[in-house]
Amino acid sequence: MGTFYNALLRLRCSASLVSRPSVCPSPQFLFAALRHFSNVPENSVYGGPRPQSPEKRVTLSHLRQKHHRGEPITVITAYDYPSAVHLDMAGIDVCLVGDSASMVVHGHDTTLPISLDEMLVHCRAVARGATHPLLIGDLPFGTYESNSNQAVDTAVRVLKEGGMDAIKLEGGSPSRITAAKAIVEAGIAVMGHVGLTPQAISVLGGFRPQGRNIASAVKVVETALALQEAGCFSVVLECVPAPVAAAATSALNIPTIGIGAGPFCSGQVLVYHDLLGMLQHPHHAKVTPKFCKQFAHVGDVINKALLDYKKEVTDGSFPGPDHSPYKISATDVNGFLNELQKMGLDKAASAAAAVAEKMDKSKLPNGENSP
Predict the structure, then answer these.
(1) Its pTM surpasses 0.70
(2) What CA dihedral angle connects 230, 231, 236 and 241, to 10 degrees?
(3) What CATH number does domain 60-302 carry, 3.40.50.410, 3.20.20.60, 3.40.50.150, 3.40.50.80?
């Protein structure tokens, strides 16, 4: 075990010996208690932690290796524990906890209203469910624009309180570049985001594609390069023409992640609910974004399930015997009826007796449920 961990063990043992001299945690206990953040080096001068296996959390090193080999990077935006578990099972590389939760989960028309505290709730839920993907948390609007100190403080909270491995911020104005650089210098990995930046819809005039004329296309590439220079490990390219995305990908030494930017990026990202066909975004007039492929139609399945549930509850077929599993013996039923009668609850006793008889008749002689 490395020097750091030996020191940590000695400190923990010393604290334990004060109250319980016979108690000292094993090295295995300490390893189990440590979360494998992506910014923990795989090989350190102190001899630990050990290189991560494919079953461990994806790291920035893994992403760099995939990018170097030309292997596409898979990213999904998700906001809660169940979706994070699904991403884990599928082996997705990166889970982005996006401020798009403002629209997808909270029902707002834009990403602007969501607060940092709300984002942290989503981050913690995802962190509990996803043990494999690299976890990236969005910095919500209004939490990093004022100055570099504010940006660093917010980024620190996203890692410490949200359990994320890295953060993402939008835009490439000089102040955003400065903020990105300050966060990186604080020891926090940063993903950039250019093209359509939803937090900037006030100046963009709405959710509008970018890079569709010469000046705008050049600006996309220049901004991506500036974010790389600031120390970003990756850049999201949203809603830009494929040639522009290809140019940015070629110009950069870091991975580009496309969303509505064509197939020539280093990887792709879609929102969990969009790719499942679960619901539609308000800002697209109740239709799925043009760039999104629905890999399933889960929304149709959900609607049918809800309608079936309503029908069966209404007609009394649910819950039936199969979904009423908790039994009481005939002897205890009789005792229960006697107690109800002593309490003067004759009507309640009659109701309980009738149901007990009905449930008993619903069983076949061999104990199986009748059709």
Answers:
(1) yes
(2) 50
(3) 3.20.20.60
